[in-house]
What does this fold into?
Amino acid sequence: MKRILAGVVVCMIVLFGCATTPKANADGSPYWTTHSPKSTRSLHYEVGSAKQSTVQLSQLRAESAAKDAIGRWASTNVDTALVTFVEEAGETLKTKQILEVLQNLSVQTVNIALRGVSVEERYTASDGTVWVLASYPVKNLKDAYKLQAEALQMSMELEKTRIEAETLVAYLDAQLDKESSE
It folds into this structure.
């Protein structure tokens, strides 16, 4: 009986020890400072770092860097989806006016969508460099895209041109799902 109890205690210690020990780099910094976490279907992660004259300035700059990286990711996803959609839609969408409207949709979507970036973790290295791990809900980009696609549809209807917002949203959803599963 004592052996079984001792075995259970040892197993619990090993399991709890593994569960609470985060990955770390050789220098003691968190693993995420050198290897960004893989994005999921619901969250996209980016890491920013900065070393300024003060820790506070470094923290602000690191947060900005992480948000900028999320913005570039969002912009690339929306732009790619729109370009592919226009190419697949054929010649009817390739007029200069339509392309300008679609470009405007892309910029507005990213500007609206970037609300909701959260700082998950911060780390300050011994040399004063601040690292920030930020996350962004992919749903926010999808929601902003849907709103902008619906606004686009309304403006294009005024010009007697129709694009179904659901088609644009479905296409973006598929692109984001495809990227997150890679």
Observations:
- The beta strands are 43-50, 118-124, 130-137.
- The mean pLDDT is 76.
- The helical segments are 2-20, 55-89, 96-113, 138-158, 165-181.
